[in-house]
């Protein structure tokens, strides 16, 4: 249900509310967390929306107040929206006499806001600063049906595309252009085995679940599946990685050959090919067993990896670094890659995953694009308190990255780009999938389409829209299956029906 939109002069019956305040230029997950927190502080939440300012001056925000109000209203979190002419918070406080004012932490040192707090205290109101908090799991299914959520997210995606001036025809043309690029992927190769089981019951000897193995299937994962996605989208791709001297490595080589991916693998007798085995009952994962060595490469193995990068650098448009922190992307290899990127004007795309490992995405300096999730960004910056916007801007500054995709799991992601004036702009995208079957590899599929799109000269936001559709396909299938350009086209046609 959408929120009613009122002028300040018509808001007299809202006195005693909880008041939120801001411009809400691009509404992302951090804003939603902030608004939901504010809504929990009292019976009625009113949002005072900053206006566009004088008509004879340049617009201060990329979207007009009416557009911002429409987007806020669609969320349905607030009981009412009140439109301000400019940023007259004092007048809003005087008219609404809120019991509590909830502000984002970015307003803590704002002189205009601080002056308004004196009026609030005189009226007996309280103030609270809240950054939106951290959240790594979704709770929407507790409050809405799957069908309702799917429709809501589709509407949000359509509104996002409209806001960015994107339509179905443009996105389909962007997919066609992906085949014009060539990329190399550097990182840890993983083989995932999914073992389907039947639950028999509990053991009589110990409190453990007993299952019967029914079937098994192998998938290439890690950097290898990023390369597989890129190739399936039509682009040329080579995989630069390290594998063991074992049958699992032979499986990887066979799969690369079958998919037409260039083999730049280096064998290392000192480490087995990373292998992860997942046991699944009725599409529910029970547990995972990993066979992995995560020590850094020996210098002679490093030399061979560097030789492969030097061979490919003149041939490719960019290099994708998919680092699972298992020791392949060493500081020396990364340093040489950055030098090659400068010499050959290569784009660098990076993702560092540290769900069960220790790593920091800040080691990727000066990249064209970084794709961390919120948890990885907070760990890298040692920051658990900042709001999402502050966190993202801090990561962009500390890494010198040109662009950023901040992944938010069930809340989608926020894409950050730079406009022609060099200013950072952002656009949130919703997660189109509501009840995913298998989230393993969703980030890999996003990284693949983002890198392929940018390497082929496509616009950031159009590529991000495709990444949104790509991730929704990836989580609907058990295991890491490469997603083709045809499948991506079908998804775009479905969610953006004329």
- What is the molecular shape? globular
CA-to-CA gap between the ends?
24 Å
Give the neighbour order of strands across the main sheet.
11-10-7-14-15-16-17-18-19
Count every helix, treating DSSP H or I runs of 4 or more residues as helices. 15
Helix content: 25-40%
CATH topology descriptor of the largest domain: UDP-N-acetylmuramoyl-L-alanine:D-glutamate ligase
Spans of at least 5 consecutive residues whose pLDDT stays below 50 are 135-143
Mean pLDDT comes to 89
Radius of gyration: 25 Å
Report the structural category: alpha/beta
CATH domain class name of the largest domain? Alpha Beta
CATH architecture annotation name of the largest domain:
3-Layer(aba) Sandwich
CATH superfamily of the largest domain: Ribokinase
The number of domains is 2
Largest sheet: 9 strands, mixed
- Sheet-strand content, in percent, reads 15-25%
Question: How many DSSP E strands?
Answer: 19
Question: Could you explain the architecture of this structure?
Answer:
There is one protein chain. With 498 residues, this protein is α/β, with parallel strands linked by helices. The protein folds into two domains: 5-133, HUPs (Rossmann fold); 154-191 and 221-274 and 298-495, Ribokinase (UDP-N-acetylmuramoyl-L-alanine:D-glutamate ligase). The protein is built from 15 helices and 19 strands. A nine-stranded mixed β-sheet has the order 11-10-7-14-15-16-17-18-19, sandwiched between helices. The chain has a six-stranded parallel β-sheet with strand order 1-4-3-2-5-6, sandwiched between helices. A four-stranded mixed β-sheet has the order 9-8-12-13. Strand 5, helix 4 and strand 6 form a beta-alpha-beta unit. Helix 9 (299-312) packs parallel to helix 10. The longest helix is centred in the first third of the chain and has 18 residues, at 146-163. The radius of gyration is 25 Å and the shape is globular. Mean pLDDT is 89; it is low at 135-143.
